[in-house]
Amino acid sequence: MSSFFYFQGSKIHYKIKGTGPTLVLLHGYLQDLGMWKKIANKLSQTHQVIAIDLPGFGKSDCLQEEHSMNLFAICVHAILFELKLQNVILIGHSMGAYVALCLLKICPKNIVHFCLFHSTANADSVEKKAQRSRLIKVVRDKKKAYLKRAIPSLFSDKYKNENPLDIKKMIEQSFLIDTKAIYGALKGMQQREDRNELLRLWPGKKTYIAGALDPLFSIGNLRKEATRNNAEFIEILEAGHMSHLENTDVAIKVFEKVIEI
After folding, report:
1. Would you say the C-alpha torsion 14, 121, 81, 6 has a positive or negative sign?
2. CA distance 162 to 188
């Protein structure tokens, strides 16, 4: 079921499917809730699955010039409060995990299982912050040129070589994203805080899921991070940053195992 929620005067889109324990899915940067379609269809057979378009993405309105990860999290929390949801399994992909980490600080007792899907609890390094500053300027001046580079950079070389039409379609869809939403999210990711201590001290179940071929995050570094944060670590082979597309069947099996009661 597709629904809308009003937050700070803006329309926020989300979908609910299935019944059972609640599973909340937060998409990554340059994505929308559609990225979860195959996974949500499968997991909704045993769970109530809620996927949310973060402000500025999909069918959700932008809120303001800069979208901090905390503002995204406050928006998600407002939806969960409206729906009276507690004891949720929270899964965030990439940027969605940054949002989820902020939500973990806001309502830690409402979450029973926290999952970082191709993501990290680290803040941006100095070099990464500088890179995002450059990208913000590029997005403002040459949005389409930026997206033509940014979308392919999420995938393994193998997937790009074997699925050029899928990559092209995703690039074309990304052209529809409001420029303000893109640079607003870049700014928000750039300014986010390190959340390792928060995650490490949180007593609930924690899981990292990572792609062996992820071009954005070192699989070795994520494995060490998971160990430091007392979390389970699961590696998906033959997948870059987008295992839900690159190795969908395996990703689904991993999630089915991860969310078992």
Report:
1. negative
2. 33
